[in-house]
Write a structure and sequence with these properties.
By secondary structure, the protein is an alpha+beta fold. The protein has 12 helices and 10 strands. The structure holds flavin-adenine dinucleotide.
Length: 384
Amino acid sequence: MEYFLTEEQKTIKDLARKIAEERVLPVRAELDETEDFPRAIMKYLADADMFRVFIPEEYEGLGGGCLELCLVVEELSRVCAAISTCYAVNALGCYTLIEFGTEEQKRKYLPDIAAGRRLTAFALTEPTAGSDAGAIKTTAEKVNGGYMLNGTKQFITNGGEAEIYTVIALTDKTRGARGASAIIVEKDTEGFSFGKTEKKMGIRASATRELIFRNCFVPEENLIGREGAGFLMAMKLFDRSRPGIGAQALGIAQGALETAVDYTRQRIQFGQPLISLPVVQDILGDMATHIEASRALIYAAARTVDSGAKNLTEVSAMSKVFASDVAMKVTTDAVQICGGPGYMRDYPLEKMMRDAKITQIYEGSNQILRNAIAIETRKRKGRT
Ligand SMILES: Cc1cc2nc3c(=O)[nH]c(=O)nc-3n(C[C@H](O)[C@H](O)[C@H](O)COP(=O)(O)OP(=O)(O)OC[C@H]3O[C@@H](n4cnc5c(N)ncnc54)[C@H](O)[C@@H]3O)c2cc1C
């Protein structure tokens, strides 16, 4: 398939692949075991200017968009989705700032993020507000000169590791989701601490942690955009970021396919390589076809995001739903056709299967997103 990537996009993709193979591959199994945050790899990515990819040029970035980010995420995920999670969530953590921040806020934060000197996180989910994100309870009460935050955020990627947090909190709790605002909270702010570190099924080297705010004061200049627009900004952000989760799923599936091809080529049973069996060829053929369909949908969705098109909900949700379901199926089938070794930790497939699962859950579960797609489809009344 020809995707007509520019020379710059090809260079970014190749560089991400090189880092994944040279720096991530040798340590992925160990990181999965220890669940240690991959600081050294974040440093390699920073030194290779990978954090600049999604930052505008005026703020020391490379000025890339959703497609460039997807290319990096795809390549990192092909080797290790935990690493791509730690990396990609930085784009999530600063998209709101890029889109809605003041010039002063952008100058203050974006160059450090571009250089990889400071990591970011995005905090919406709470113990009582997951899919029903509008039910958040964390408050940011207006006080003299700023806001006083109180509440707990749950399952926050890069929690405890990031230096900059975009937190969605209620500045007007009488208005529900319409009273939510986006506020920047820096790591060492008084009253801001970290709670439970989650032990996960997959993407284990990524940090997932609780954020706790107890009378945490932040100055009013940390408000992004206007009061009450936080929920809307979060929804816009997810419209832009979901192809990135699709790209993560795509990379995992691609890695699983390649591993399964290598294994079934060299495994001899009944006097022939497994790959010669029609049943195995059927499965591999399906895997390859679905992966290519994912790639086509994700690149098209990313290009739609980058085109400045207004309504991104449908295409963005479709790319995430499709690619994540493909990743789950491909990794499960890959384990199956590799038999016992596929199930063992000596091979990467069981990790890929565990890692794939999260892509169906976060940034909007696939059930919620199918619902969103159906609503958009109904609005269009069958028009293409
Ligand atoms: C590893 C990990 C990292 C995460 N990182 C972040 C992060 O960085 N920042 C952040 O803010 N959040 C983060 N999250 C939270 C994540 O986005 C939520 O877990 C997700 O949105 C689902 O919410 P929930 O877990 O509360 O499940 P629930 O909302 O309780 O849903 C449980 C199940 O019910 C289904 N369901 C719920 N409502 C409906 C409905 N109306 N119709 C049909 N089905 C429904 C869901 O699809 C799901 O299958 C992370 C989660 C995980 C696991």
